[in-house]
Amino acid sequence: MEVISDIIGIVFTYVLVSNVILTQFLGLCPFIGVSKNTESAVGMGFAVTFVITLATLFTWMLYNWLLVPAGLEYLKVISFILVIASLVQFVEMFVKKNSPSLYKALGIYLPLITTNCAVMGIALLVVEVEKLSLFNSVLAGFSAGIGFLVAILLMSAIREQLEIEWVPKGLKGTPIAFISAGLMAMAFMAFDKALLMNLVG
Amino acid sequence: MKVFTKGLFKENPVFAIALGLCPALAVTSMVWNAIGMGFGVIFVLVCSNLMISLLRNFIPDEVHIPAYIVVIASFVTIVELLMKAYLPSLAASLGIFIPLIVVNCVILGRAEAFASKNTPLDSVLDGLGMGIGFTLALIAIALVREVLGSGQITLFEQGASLIRIKLGPLSDNPIRVFAFPAGALIVMGYFKALFETISKRRK
Lengths: 201, 203
What we know:
Strand order of the largest sheet of chain B: 1-2
Oligomer: heterodimer
Number of strands of chain B: 2
Helix content of chain A: over 70%
Number of helices of chain B: 9
Distance between the termini of chain A: 12 Å
Radius of gyration of chain B: 18 Å
Order of helices and strands of chain A: HHHHHHHHHH
Largest interface: A-B, 45 and 42 residues
Number of domains of chain B: 1
Shape of chain A: globular
Number of strands of chain A: 0
Number of domains of chain A: 1
């Protein structure tokens, strides 16, 4: 029973309570840059989910099995970013070979994931700060990716609607996107630790 | 001179190009955090620009991005270790955002767009200008958020020494939402609108 409530807790925390974008501000650049239409937003969301999940898996193994035993924790920044960069490169090659249609849909967003701070941020957070177990880390990475997907999908829907609404001249474009994101973050404040406690006890 | 000043307003990394947004919003609930983050970024930006500019003729084109990332990551590690040693409470409140300087697109962006093509002196000036522009933007956002969100301005905090200005009635009844993530996004939206209006006027 405890395992299940653990799992529910982690998923709920990373998808809603501390949503990567709306409460932790990780991965804002693609969130504002790629959310103009739903199709590319979904593509980006899935690509990020995939990379975050793999990145937490590999960085966890690297950190706990190699860096900690060797006492080289201070090399984490360099090694994590290299792992993520090569992972993205690998994913890009793999997708290109096996599913050209998906590759086309993701387009330039794939290589850009390397500098998406959500990937690096979540890897650092779950592996170094929270020190979760391997399974929980990967689960947290996956949930964070889903949280990213949810936020960017909602945002793209809002922005598509904003295109046809009247917006004050000075606020057109990015400024109104930021303000809508702020209102969305306010709504997400309803998901908090207390709610989580009530759910899993 | 122009190389130095363009980062301050015209090509301000946060407001004009919208790069490095994550730290700009995440650490700006206190002015002191914004200053600390700003100095970290200035240091990494200047050093990595200098290094990359010196190495620009030696780095093969095919692997230039990984090479830049390694250079940047080394300087970020230096900043992280220094901050943990001398300003531990600042390091604690910035948390994972110090190592995340490595994926701050401002730095990789300047390395790619400027330092890889220009002389070391110009690159240092460019890094300094961009870094100061970034810091100013952070301080501006933090000032609005801290004044409205907690009714105070924290200029320095380390152990027992603390420089903090309390703003009378506002510090008793602050508008809490500005200290939360939601407030950061809204403040950023209005800053962006203001900035775009001003730069349109100038043209």
